[in-house]
Amino acid sequence: MNNEALEPKESTIENNLNTTPTPNNPYSQNTNQVYQNQALPDDEEKVNNLVKSIKKIIIIVVIGVLLVLATIVVLNLVSHNSTTKSSSYDQIVVDNIFKLRNDAINYYNSYKTYKDWDGDPKLQAQIKATGSIAIIRKASLQHYMVYAKLSNGEYFCADSSGFIDRINKIKENQFFCSN
Description:
With 179 residues, this protein is of the alpha+beta class. It has a domain at 49-167. Helices cover 58% and strands 12% of the residues. It contains four helices and four strands; from the N terminus they run ααααββββ. A hairpin with a 4-residue loop joins strand 3 (155-159) and strand 4 (164-167). The termini are far apart.
């Protein structure tokens, strides 16, 4: 046997290494580059499409989260605004009842009666100026009751006995605030 035939020639291996790379040449130094370059357009397009899809999903999720947060903020503002309005209204009612009570006390101290207190021009001017919705009831020359409805359905009431507070209801023939 010929030993020369079994041994590869160095010149053949060197020639194969220096040849232009091809996918079928196992001795090519740039085999991976050739395969990547051939497969790259399809894979790159798939990766680009996947990245675009993920970006769209992220944008949709972010917009959804922002919409939920905006809804929560708007609902809180609306709720706070209506609560503020009702508590402001109630505070005006309470303030007006206190003013009317003080006027009644001053009127009684001056005239020793409540006889014409509800018709007093100063009182009528005050009621008109403050926009009071208070109702005045006189039980007698010595007794009065003044009240107004609050936003929650209760009444704020003051009377000549010194009572001034919230009560649940007012009866038609009631002349004192206590229930």
